[in-house]
Each structure stands twice: as C-alpha cells, then as structure tokens.
Amino acid sequence: PDPPQELWVEAPPPNATFRVGEGLRLLCHARGGHPAPKLTWSKAGRPLADAPPQSRSGHVTSRALPLVATPSDNSAPYRCEAAPAHKGAPPTRSEPVRLRVL
C-alpha cells in the first residue's frame, strides 16, 4: 500500500468572512495512493462523521464538507486527513483551514 503523494484543501481565501447561517463548502483532494486513501474531516481535532461520501476521478480522491457557519466555527481549525496506507504509518494531514465567522 502507498500513501497519497499529495493532499490539499480547496477553501475560501483566508481573509474571507462569513455570517452565522451562511453556507460554504470545503473540499479535500488526495492525489495517488494505493488503494485509494480514506479521507476524513475533523474540526478542532474531533472527527466529523457527517461529510458526504468521497469520490474518485482518475488518480484523485475527493471528499467535500458542506458547512453552515456557526459561532463555534470562528477560528476553529478544520483539517482533512488521509488514513495511513499501512498499520503503524502516520496519517497524511492537510494544513488546518480556519474560517472567520461574524
């Protein structure tokens, strides 16, 4: 088994602000990996189980995270993680994404 070669997140620009109740979407992508990596989302270190199923197109696996902004989202670190390719290996983690919610 091989880990993904690259993991990245599509997110609003860092200076974007959102109002409570506003909808937005984060998108995680992993290139490569065999078998396809299992992608999970977390907020402030806690796994989020309600993300839609992941999809795969060619060598890229993706998983979206639709959100409705809440006060607790302000500055909370969201992170995407690809499960370890084999037992004992570390997971591949994205840089944290922090939202500005007013």
Distance between the termini: 43 Å
Structural class: mainly beta
Summarize model confidence as the mean pLDDT.
Answer: 94
Percentage of helical residues?
A: under 10%
Based on CA inertia axes, which overall geometry fits?
elongated
CATH H-level homologous superfamily name? Immunoglobulins
**CATH class assignment:** Mainly Beta
In CATH, the topology is named Immunoglobulin-like
- What's the total helix number? 0
Low-confidence stretches: none
* Radius of gyration using CA atoms only: 14 Å
Number of strands: 11
Give the biggest sheet.
Answer: 5 strands, antiparallel
Residue share in β-strands = over 45%
Helix and strand string, N-terminal first? EEEEEEEEEEE
Structure description:
- Helices cover 0% and strands 47% of the residues.
- It is mainly β and 102 residues long.
- The chain has one domain (6-101): Immunoglobulins (Immunoglobulin-like, Sandwich).
- The strands form three sheets. Strands 4, 5, 8, 9 and 10 form a five-stranded antiparallel β-sheet that branches.
- A hairpin with a 2-residue loop joins strand 4 (39-43) and strand 5 (46-48).
- 23% of the residues are buried.
- This is NPHN protein.
- Residues 31-102 are annotated as: Disordered.
- It comes from Cettia cetti.
- InterPro entries: Ig-like_dom (IPR007110), Ig-like_dom_sf (IPR036179), Ig-like_fold (IPR013783), Ig_sub (IPR003599).
List keywords for this structure.
11 strands; 102 residues; 5-stranded antiparallel sheet; 0% helix; 4-stranded antiparallel sheet; Immunoglobulin-like
